[in-house]
Every structure is written in structure tokens, then in C-alpha cells.
From TrEMBL:
It is found in: Nucleus. Pathway: Protein modification; protein ubiquitination. This is Leucine-rich repeat protein 1. Residues 83-96 have a biased composition (Low complexity). It comes from the Eukaryota. PROSITE patterns: LRR (PS51450). Its main location: nucleus. Residues 117-177 form the PIF1/LRR1 pleckstrin homology domain. Component of the probable ECS(LRR1) E3 ubiquitin-protein ligase complex which contains CUL2, RBX1, Elongin BC complex and LRR1. Interacts with CUL2, RBX1, ELOB and ELOC. GO terms for cellular component: cytoplasm; nucleus. Keywords: Leucine-rich repeat, Nucleus, Repeat, Ubl conjugation pathway.
Length: 475
């Protein structure tokens, strides 16, 4: 049997708040009007227990309800405890609901206090009792106890007993059968995985189970990410491949447990820097952005330092992240069939197991034709920037304007190890990709495994030294 508790006074009557099956619980919808639950999706636990009612002598002046531990748990003869608290053996916290058939006395009804059944039932709804469904409307608290998926005969007996308890019938006269513990096979476990592969199967009116850890919603023609998905705080794997999503909301970064994000074959044109600064920095390990329309990734992308597997195939990328070498955990990188002319200088810091850069229009490197951006003498800004980085002087937006901080984040590194900001010499040289990856997919149809990579020099002296070594090795 499933019990649904609906708040009539504070919540829309058509929206279930708690659902229990064989003592298990589901709380699919956030409800800010519930005291103690707040607006977030919290796992509310509903406990269904029964006790017989032995004679209990209360101390004089005792004002509270009789504690369930004072009764022995044998059958459904007497008292029904229905609670959103964490345990039936503790005093119910704020926001919990207790319903008990206690004809011997009328308990006080306050926030978090038990409510007696006797003279507290406003109405019974039994039109669909033959289908195993019924609703009992209480006066205080203002809730509807909705029963469903019940055996019709057992449900009729239960409703009969509740009516008698409401009328004040003695406990021993209630016609209830012995409570039989539920079998493990009858207990519905929280759902952790859901796979949807067509728009027809996509839930439009029902919420996703809050317990989901793996959600796949592919081929559903989604134009945006469903905000209900962003409430699944236990989600570890999210697969939204083969849809029409154009933009990612920043709130996707609130999925603190998210480890895998698959956005293959969508219409994305960018990847938000806000996502890179979110909690995904500590959780995201797999990211598939392949077959989209992304031209560049933000500077902050390399803050996702837990990434192990990154797929960027079939986009319109004209460059890889400048500081890609900061992805120290990255082991699998594929960026095939993009528009990459060369690789960033930081690329040589990677340590990969598998690398695929096939089908990119790499330029032919020519170290003898440098791109000279040197400014002599160096500007004050350039000198200050180099000193800040070379001497590792702390900086931040609380000390410097934000645009200067951004410039410092993308400072180049010379072959000598010194930094340079906007005054440098740039060339491209050939790098064998086996220097950074154990397994390399051929770069072109000619069987090559080499690609051009950018090199920077902070001065003419550094470039001259490199040029001497290059000419000697190729002389």
C-alpha cells in the first residue's frame, strides 16, 4: 500500500508531498511551505508503524503524547504512526506529522505534535476503493492521507477500522488483521538510474526521482536543459546527447556530485566560464562536447582540473585552452576534425594515455620566420607583470583591476622559464605527439604523429640561443 500525504492549507492540493511504500520514502517536489523542509529537495522519511494499546498510566500533569516505546509492536490493532521524522523512536522534529488512533484521550495538536483520529476525520473519499484507492481527510493538521495500490479487501477493512476509531470505538473492537512484515521483494528501492531515448517517453508532468544518480535523456529534441534536472543533487552521470541544446545554464554547476557530463551532438556554441568556476572543478571527470559548434573554450576552462577524459571532436575550434597543461589528471583527449592551426605552448606539459588530433588543418612550422612582438624598451606594465609572475608575488581582484588579473593569468612562458605578457617573440616548431601521449592517433592520412606547437621568447637573446641550437641540429 502507498500512502500519500497532501497539505491542503499550505500546498496546492494536487501536489503530493510524501509518498511511502512499505516504509520507504519519496519526496519528489520541493515545498518551501513545509516547516523544517525548506525549499531544497530533502529526503523526507515517512515511517509507518503500528502498536497495540496496553493500559498506560501517565504521571500526573503529563501533557505530552504517549511515547510509542510504551507500546508493544504486534499488530495493526490500535495505533498508526505516520511520521516524516527520521525515527519513530524519537520525538518528532519540526515539520513532522503524526496520526494516531487513540480513543482514550484527545491529544493536543501543535506543530510537530501527534493528532488523534477520534473526532478528527473530516471526510472519507472512497469512490475508487475497488481499485485500491482512498483518501482520508483530517481536520488537524489539514492534510489528506491518500492510499493507493492497496488490496481492495484490506483497504475496506482498514477504512472500517478508521471510521470506528473516529467514532470512539474501543481499541480491542477494531477489526484489523495482524500486521505482516513486508518482504524485501515487495519493498521498492529508490530509483538511481533512468534512461530516456525518445521524446515520447520524456516525463512532462511527473518529476524525476530525487534519488537519481544516472540520467540519460537522448533523442528528446530538448532545446534547453530541464530545470527539474538541476534539482537532482545526487546526480553523478548526466547524458543529454543527441538533442538541440544551444546554451548551458550556470546552475548546472550546482550539481555537486556530477562526474560525467555528455553533451555530444547538440547545438552548443560556447562553454560558460561560470561553469568552470563552479563546484564542477572538484567533481567533473568526464566531459563530452563533441559534435557541436564551439569555436573556443574560455580561459577558465582549465580550472576543471579533475578532468580525466575530454572529447572535443567535430567542433569548430580554432585553438585549445591556453593553459591546457594545468589539466594534470587528463589522460584521454580527442579533438579530431576541428580547425586547429597549431597547439598551445602549454600542451607539452600534458601526460596522456590516448590522444586524437586527426583531421585538423595544422600549419607547416617555420622557426626561421618569427612573429616579433617585442617592445624595446619594455613598458612599465610589462616590467611589473613579469616581476609579479617571476617572483610569485600574490595578486588578486582585491589588489588589482580585474583586467590586469586576467592578463596575468594568460602570461606566456619563455624557453628560459621567464614570463612575458605582451612583449615577446613567437614561432611554431614541430613536436612529436608521443612526447605527451602513449597512444597517438595519426594526425593525417600520411601517417604523421607530429604537430606544430607555439614557442615564446621573452627577448632577442633567448630567441638567438634557440636559433643557434636549431641550425646546428638541422645543419
Amino acid at each position: 500500500m502507498v500512502l500519500d500525504l497532501w497539505h491542503r492549507a499550505t500546498c496546492p492540493s494536487e501536489q503530493p508531498r510524501f509518498t511511502t511504500k512499505a516504509g520507504q520514502h519519496i519526496c519528489p517536489v520541493p515545498c518551501s511551505s513545509h516547516p523544517g523542509l525548506g525549499s531544497s529537495l530533502l529526503p523526507a522519511r515517512a515511517v509507518h508503524r503500528t502498536w497495540c494499546q496496553p493500559p498506560v498510566t501517565e504521571p500526573r500533569g503529563h501533557e505530552g503524547p504517549v511515547h510509542p516505546q510504551a507500546c508493544s509492536p504486534v499488530s495493526l490493532h490500535t495505533r498508526c504512526l505516520l511520521s516524516s521524522s527520521m525515527s519513530p523512536h524519537t520525538h518528532p522534529p519540526s515539520g513532522s506529522l503524526l496520526v494516531s488512533s487513540h480513543p482514550s484521550r484527545r491529544v493536543e495538536r501543535g506543530r510537530g505534535e501527534p493528532s488523534g483520529v477520534q473526532e478528527n476525520i473530516e471526510r472519507f473519499f472512497t469512490r475508487f476503493v475497488e481499485e485500491g484507492k482512498a483518501t482520508v481527510r483530517l481536520r488537524e493538521p489539514a492534510v489528506d492521507v491518500c492510499l493507493s495500490k492497496a488490496n481492495a479487501s484490506n483497504l475496506k477493512n482498514f477504512l472500517s477500522a478508521v471510521r470506528l476509531a473516529h467514532q470512539g470505538t474501543d481499541i480491542g473492537a477494531l477489526p484489523l488483521s495482524t500486521l505482516v512484515p513486508a518482504k524485501n521483494s515487495e519493498v521498492e528501492k529508490p530509483k538511481t538510474k533512468m534512461i530516456i531515448t525518445s521524446r515520447r517517453d520524456y516525463p512532462l508532468t511527473k518529476n524525476f526521482p530525487y534519488s537519481l544518480e544516472h540520467l540519460q535523456a537522448s533523442y528528446c529534441k530538448l532545446a534547453r536543459i530541464d530545470m527539474r534536472v538541476l534539482c537532482l543533487k545526487k546526480l553523478r552521470k548526466l547524458d543529454l546527447s543527441h538533442n538541440h541544446i544551444k546554451q548551458l545554464p550556470a546552475t548546472i554547476g550546482d550539481l555537486i556530485c556530477l562526474q560525467e557530463l555528455n553533451l555530444h551532438d547538440n547545438h552548443l556554441e560556447s562553454f560558460s566560464g561560470a561553469l568552470c568556476n563552479s563546484t564542477l572543478q572538484k567533481s567533473l571527470q568526464f566531459l563530452d562536447l563533441s559534435q557541436n559548434k564551439i569555436k573556443a573554450l574560455p580561459i577558465q576552462f582549465c580550472q576543471l582540473r579533475e578532468l580525466v577524459n575530454l572529447k572535443l571532436d567535430d567542433n569548430e575550434l580554432i585553438r585549445l585552452p591556453f593553459k591546457i597543461g594545468q589539466l594534470g589528471h587528463l589522460r584521454f583527449l580527442s579533438a579530431a576534425r576541428n580547425k586547429l592551426p597549431f597547439l598551445p605552448s602549454d600542451f607539452r606539459k600534458l601526460c596522456l594515455e590516448n590522444l586524437d588530433l586527426f583531421g585538423n588543418p595544422f600549419e607547416q612550422p617555420n622557426p626561421l620566420v618569427p612573429n616579433i612582438q617585442l617592445k624595446i624598451p619594455l613598458t612599465l606594465l610589462e616590467c611589473a607583470a613579469r616581476a609579479t609572475i617571476n617572483y610569485r608575488i600574490p595578486y588578486g581582484c582585491h589588489l588589482l583591476p580585474s583586467h590586469l588579473c586576467e592578463d596575468l593569468e594568460v602570461a606566456k612562458t619563455c624557453q628560459c622559464g621567464s614570463a612575458c605578457l605582451s612583449s615577446f617573440i613567437q614561432i611554431t616548431v614541430t613536436m612529436n605527439l608521443h612526447h605527451v601521449a602513449h597512444t597517438v592517433v595519426l594526425v593525417d592520412n600520411m601517417g604523421g604523429t607530429e604537430a606544430p606547437i607555439i614557442c615564446y621568447f621573452c627577448s632577442l637573446d633567448c630567441y638567438s640561443q634557440f636559433l643557434d641550437r636549431y641550425l646546428q641540429s638541422n645543419g
